Amino acid sequence: MRRSSILIISFFLFLACNHNTYKQGKVLYESNCAQCHMPDGSGVGDLYPALSQLGPDYNYSLISCYIINGKKSENSILEMVAIKGLSDIEINNIINYVRSEMNDLEGEVSIADTRKQIPECVQ
Amino acid sequence: MKSNIYTIIIVCVITIITSCKQDEKVGPLPYYGEKTVVNGDSIHYQIPEFKFFDQDSNAVTSKDMDKYIYVTDFFFTTCPSICPVVKKQMLRIYDKYKDNPKFKLVSHTLDPKRDTAEKLKKYAEKLNVSTDKWIFLTGDKDSLIDMSANYFISAYEDEDAPGGIDHSGLVVLVDTNRNVRASAQGTDPDDITELLSDIDRLLKEYETQ
User: Is the pLDDT of residue A13 over 60?
Assistant: First the structure.
């Protein structure tokens, strides 16, 4: 009896701890990114890349740099303009929303990683 | 015996109700704009004749379009606000009708200076669409802005708007006779779903002719 209640309690604790929804990341994504990358991250053709298809090998830390500097590849006709006014914590939450919710990956990019990355983005 | 009578009454009532309920979604689509009377005949509003240039710099006139029904919108490639979302919905329309020989999509740029034929061609490539089916038009800026109003889509230059041009995300369905027959907000997926059934209805009108 005692054992089973411990199991049940730890199961709920597990659920509670494992439920990273990155709520702020979602709100910021919707107001800053969704108009180009679509609310579900599916993008538009090859014009606006699908953020839901970045996959496990993608370097998510670099998203900080795309947000701060903008991004334009050689062969693309559109560019992503820099998005001003987001703090390092906000950027971190957006990155983890894209990483965890859209790409369904475990773990996260830590705020320490993002704080280390941002100064290196300066072009 | 009594229950038999009830059954008959219920059946009658149901028959009457269902036969009276007219489905608004069948029959011909309505016509947009005011009617005019010419020589005693009343004529539906038609968009004026036009001539623009496509992504291969070929002239495209309203005459070239009179074999097709088409859905049209106005945008520009660098538009950061509503255009990507509208294009995503236009892609839904493209995917559904890309094999229908009666149907085309026509996108007009509102920024002809930057959106040259060459740029529009690349844009179509990156959108992964065939320009046989989905035409991208450019031309004189004022003519393009005037044309948007003819389609009941409002566009005007505005320094405060993102990209310098303010325009609505309306997409409009035109028949082979330059009559405007339906429209939808390109930013609203549900509205586009309704437009898809309007397109089906318009296509049916040509089947029965």
Answer: no
